[in-house]
Amino acid sequence: MSSSPISVIIVGAGFAGLTAALELSRKSIPVLLLEKSPSLSQTLGDIISFGQNSSRFFAKWPGVLEKLDPIIHQSTEFHFHDWQGKFVTTQSFVEEHRKWGTRVNGHRGEIHQILFDQASAQPNISILLNQTVMSYSETKDSAIVTTSSGHTFTADLVLAAEGVHSRARSKILGYDDHSRPTPSGYAVFRAWFPSSPLLTSNPLIKHLVYPNGDTHNGWIGKDVHFLTASIKNGTEFSWVCTHADDAQIKESWQFPGSKEKALKVVEGWDPIVQEIIRVTPEDRLFDYKLVFRDPLPTFVSPEHGRIAVIGDAAHPFLPTSVQGASQAMEDGVVMAACLDIAGKDKVQEAVKVWERIRYERVHAIQKTGVQTREQWHKADWDAIWKNPDSLHLKREAWILDFDAEKVAYQRYQEVRKELESGEKL
Ligand SMILES: Cc1cc2nc3c(=O)[nH]c(=O)nc-3n(C[C@H](O)[C@H](O)[C@H](O)COP(=O)(O)OP(=O)(O)OC[C@H]3O[C@@H](n4cnc5c(N)ncnc54)[C@H](O)[C@@H]3O)c2cc1C
C-alpha cells in the first residue's frame, strides 16, 4: 500500500465541508478547502439545529463544545398551542438528553464561525477563500477542479460540498440540473433579532423572553405552523413560519421578507403570534421558498469515482426534518472513516463504501421532513384533543441515537464484500 497520505480537495466550507475537513485532519489526511465566499458573515442565516447524532461530533474537536455552550438554546421543553393560542401539550427533551446526549440549536452564522475557526487552526487544513469552483473533471488517478480565476487544483479525491446549487451534480448525473429545483409548495418566513422589542412593546409577548430565559413554542394551524425560540438567556429571539406557497424561485437564504405578507398568513391567529410579527424589525425578516431536488441515483462520479457530492449538494432537506445539517455532518464523518480504513490505493473503494453506508439512511431521514409537516399541517384536531402528545416532534432512536463514525468502522468490510459481490444500491 502507498505510504503517502491521501490528498483531498473539499469544495465549500459549509457544515458538510468543514466537518469532512476536521475529521480528515483528525485522521492525519491533509485537506485543501476551497470556498467561494470572500469572508464569513456571522449575520447570515438564523436558527439551525443539530440532533444528538451530529451534536456528538462537536465533542471530537477540542474546545468546540466550550465555545458553543454560551451561544446555544438551553431550554428542554417545547410548548405547543393551536392556531388560536389554546395550549395543547409540552414536549420534554430531558429524557432523550439523558439517554442520547444534548442537542445543539443556535444561530447558523455563529456556530459556523466556531467550526471555521477550528478548521483554520489545523496545520493540515489549508483554506482558500474567494475561490469559486467552476468545473470538475477526473482521470483514473486523480480528480481536478478549476476555479473562476482559472486556477487548477488536483487531488486523489474531490468532495463537492457546495450546497443546493452544486455544480458537481451535473458531473454525477451526466446532465445539468443546476437550475431545476422543484417547488415543494411551501415557503418559510424566518427572523432572528435582539429580543428588546418583545420586552418593551407589548406585555402580551414579554414572557417569551423574560423572566423565562430560553423558551421554545409552536402554534399549529391548517397548512401553517409558527415556531419561536429565544436564546442566550432570552436576549435574542427567532421565529419561523412555514406556509403554503407555490412561487417558482431559486433557493436563497437572503430573500427579503414582508411583515404585511407574514401577517396575512396568520390572519385571525393568536394575538401573540401577530404581535411577534409586528415587533420584528423588517430588515431581519426573510422569506425562503422551500424546494425539492429529486434523489440522485448516486453520490459518486460514475466515470472514475474520484468526485463525490456530500451534504445539501447530494441531498437537500426540508427544515421540518430538523436533520439537514446533521446529515451533512454525518456524510463528512463517515467519509473520513472510510478513507482512513482504505488508504491511498483504495480511495475509490472507500468512496463507494461511503455511498452505500449513507444512501439509504439519508433518503429515509429526508422523508421525515414531509411527515412532520403533514402531521402538523393536516392535523385532525378532534384526534389531537384526545391525544395531545400526537403533535410532538417524532424523536426516533434510529436517527438520533446513532454514532455514524462507529457504524462506518463496524460496517466497512461487510459493505465492501457486498460491493464485490455486485449487489446494487
Ligand atoms: C449563508 C447560508 C445560511 C444558511 N442559513 C441557514 C439557517 O439559518 N438555518 C438552516 O437550517 N439552514 C441554513 N443554511 C443551510 C444549512 O447550512 C445547510 O442546509 C446544511 O447545513 C448543509 O450544509 P452544506 O455544507 O451541505 O451546505 P451549505 O451550508 O449550503 O454550504 C455550502 C458552501 O459551499 C460554498 N460554495 C457553493 N458553491 C461553491 C463553489 N462553486 N465553489 C466554492 N464554494 C462554493 C457556499 O458558499 C457555502 O459556504 C444556510 C446555508 C447558507 C450557505
TrEMBL record:
InterPro entries: FAD-bd, FAD-dep_Monooxygenase_BioMet, FAD/NAD-bd_sf. The keyword Transmembrane helix does not apply. SUPFAM superfamilies: FAD-linked reductases, C-terminal domain, FAD/NAD(P)-binding domain. Residues 7-339 form the FAD-binding domain. Keywords: FAD, Flavoprotein, Monooxygenase, Oxidoreductase. Pfam families: FAD_binding_3. It comes from the Eukaryota. One of its GO terms (molecular function) is FAD binding. Belongs to the paxM FAD-dependent monooxygenase family. This is FAD-binding domain-containing protein. It comes from Podospora fimiseda. The lineage of its organism: Eukaryota, Fungi, Dikarya, Ascomycota, Pezizomycotina.
